[in-house]
Amino acid sequence: MILQQLLNGVGIGLTYVLVALGFNLVFGVMRVLNLAFGEVFMLGAVVSLAFVERFPAYAVLAPAVAVLAAVAAGLLVHRLAVAPLGRVSELDSPRHLGVMITTIGAALVMQNAAILLFGAYPRRFPPLLPDVDVGVGPVQVRSAILLDLAAAAAALLLLAHVIQRTRFGLRLRAIADDPELAAATGLRIPAHEAAAVALSSALAGLAAFLTAQTVGAVSPYFGVTFGFKGLVVVILGGLGSFRGTVVAGLALGVLEALAAGYVSSSYRDAVAFGLLLAYLVWRGHLGRSTRRAPLPAEGA
Q1: Distance CA 142, CA 237 (A)
Q2: 107 or 272, higher pLDDT
Q3: What is the C-alpha separation between 13 and 123, in angstroms, rounded?
Q4: Which helix (H) or strand (E) holds 218?
Q5: Does residue 20 register a pLDDT over 90?
Q6: Eight-class DSSP state of 285
Q7: Are 226 and 63 a contacting pair, CB within 8 Å?
Q8: DSSP string, 118-167
């Protein structure tokens, strides 16, 4: 029983990691906290559901549809709600507060648009694979959890490779470290910022599809909880820390699964609030001034 809960927790924890790394990636490059990211996640799920319902014979393309929808939503938010405010040079800059306000507005617009187009109530998301239990050693694991584990792990490895081993990743890390110097060397900062937004949104879209497969339903309110939990993972794991984000996301997923399995499923969402509260009490305050965060794959 406990092994099964641990596997379930690792599966959902990896989706939290993907969302948190999306937050981290954009913050590292642009010094911006995009509070519409949860709704970008939500749109990936609901658009892929609409695609599956309209074209059931092509359901295998649903993950790609979720990623493309999230990328389109993320770039639209960036173009309309973030880029017009200019570059944010410091965390305590008035522009940073402005970006937070405009992205909250964008989140409300996307959520209400989804309610108008798809309805306000949860809708069943058909499984991509037959929903059966698969024997993994002494435990039985749902096929959706195994899909979650495999796809999320592959995405994390690919992200680490892109950030650490490619010229594109090197340019992103240069911009995150010193944007003025990077611009002086000829790097096109706006284009690379848009590319970082697209990459982070793709992570959100993949996480949304995997979560919809695991949960089995989506709604226009789908992104609120997961956006918050992604932020909790960022805070606990540390801005710019790839390993810290992975550990925090897995820990949150496992603790939620244990709470749901041994206490009550109604306490699942309280785990994130409890961890955040305990962390803030341990730190003794709500925040400190920070240096520019490195990209997630280079932090320790």
Answers
A1: 28
A2: 107
A3: 23
A4: strand 217-218
A5: yes
A6: S
A7: no
A8: H-SS-EE---SS---EEEETTEEEEHHHHHHHHHHHHHHHHHHHHHHHSH
Integer Cα distance of 155 and 23 in angstroms = 15
Q: Please, are residues 169 and 242 in contact by the beta-carbon 8 Å criterion?
A: no
In sequence order, which residues have a C-beta less than 8 Å from that of residue 160 and are 6 or more positions away? 242, 297
- Among candidate residues 263, 244, 253, the one with its CA nearest the CA of residue 226: 253
- Number of other CB atoms surrounding residue 132 within 10 Å: 11
What digits encode the pLDDT tens for the residues 111-138? 999 999 998 899 999 988 877 777 766 7
Rounded (5°) CA angle 245-134-270: 40
SS3 49: helix
**80 vs 102: CA distance, rounded Å:** 9
Bridge partners, residue 140, by sequence = 135
Ramachandran area for residue 80 (φ above 0: left; ψ -120 to 50: alpha; else beta): alpha
At 291, which helix (H) or strand (E)? none
Pairwise CA distance, residues 133 & 146, whole Å? 10
* Cα distance between residue 112 and residue 220, in whole Å: 8
